[in-house]
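Q: I'm writing a short methods note and want an example of a predicted protein-small molecule complex. Could you take the sequence and the SMILES for zinc ion and return the bound structure as C-alpha cells? Please keep the output block clean; save any remarks for afterwards.
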Amino acid sequence: MKMRDVPKELQILRILRPRMNFTEDEESYYQYKEKGYEGEVTFDKWAEPLKDMIFLNDINLNTNNNHFQNDSLGISAGTLHIFEVKNFAGDYTIDKEGKWHSPKGNIVKNPHLQLEKAETLMNQLVKNMGWRINVEPHLVFVHPEFHLYNVPAHLPIIYPTQLVRFREKLLERCSKPTRSEVQLGDRLLSLLIEEMPYTSVPDYTYDRLRKGIVCKGCGVFYGSFHKTFQCGFCGGRESCSEAVIRSINEFKMLFSDNKVTTARIHDWCNVVKDERTIRRVLNENFELKGFAKSAFYF
Ligand SMILES: [Zn+2]
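A: Understood, no commentary inside the block.
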C-alpha cells in the first residue's frame, strides 16, 4: 500500500557528502543512516513472498502529539504486524539494567523500547479509529553477522537465522485482510505526515558547497564534458541531459527556497562551460515561469 522511498534525510546526506567535508561524527551518522536503509531494503526483499499481507512502509504518524515512526506495518486477517527492522552487525549485549551495548561498548537506543512504544501508540490509534485488530510487534534483525547476548526470554526477536522459518510461519498463519482491514490500511495511509525535520543534517550553504556534477555510479566529480559525461574514475557514461537533470534535482532538494535559473544551474553544474547547454536542458525538461530577469524554472 505504501512503497519505501529513500528517506529524504538520506537523500540530502548523499548529495552533500561529496560536496563538503563531513566531520567524523557526520560521517558516522551518514553511515548509520545508509546501513539502516540497506536493512530495510533487505527486509522488503524478505517480505516479498508474503502476498496476503498489506504493507505500509516507512511510516510517520502523529497520534495525540506523539510522533510515531515505523519501518514496516503489515496487515493480514485479524492482525496488524509492527516490524521494527534493525541492520545491526556484530555482537551486541543487553546489560542488567536492560541497556543495549554495541560491539564497541557504546550504549545504543534500545530497539525493544522503540517497538513497545510503537505497539502502545498503534493500539491506541486503532482503537480510537474504531477498529478491533490484534497488534503484534516483531523486532527483526536482518544482518547475518548479528548476535545478541543476555536476552530476556520475552522479547519478540527474530534473528537472521530464523528469518526463513519466521516467514514460513507467517505464510501458514496469515490470510488476506478483510475489506474492513483494507479500509484500516487506507485510513492509516490518510494520516501519514512528512518525515520528521532532519535536525541531524550538517549545516550547509550554497557558497560553501563544492560545485560540479557527480558521477551517478561512483560519486566522484566528472572532470570534463564533451557532449556526454565520462567518469575519469569508474569509466561510467551518462548523457548530458540525464546528468544535468539529476544535478538540478539535487539543487532543488538542497535549496527548495531558491529559484532555479539558468545562471544558477550553470554555476551549480560548473563542469558544463557553455550556458546554452544548461538553458536547453532546462527548456526541454522544466517549465519556465515569469519573464526576463525574474524568470525561473520549476
Ligand atoms: Zn564514476
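A: Remarks, as requested: Residues 228-297 form one domain. The two ends are 29 Å apart (CA to CA).
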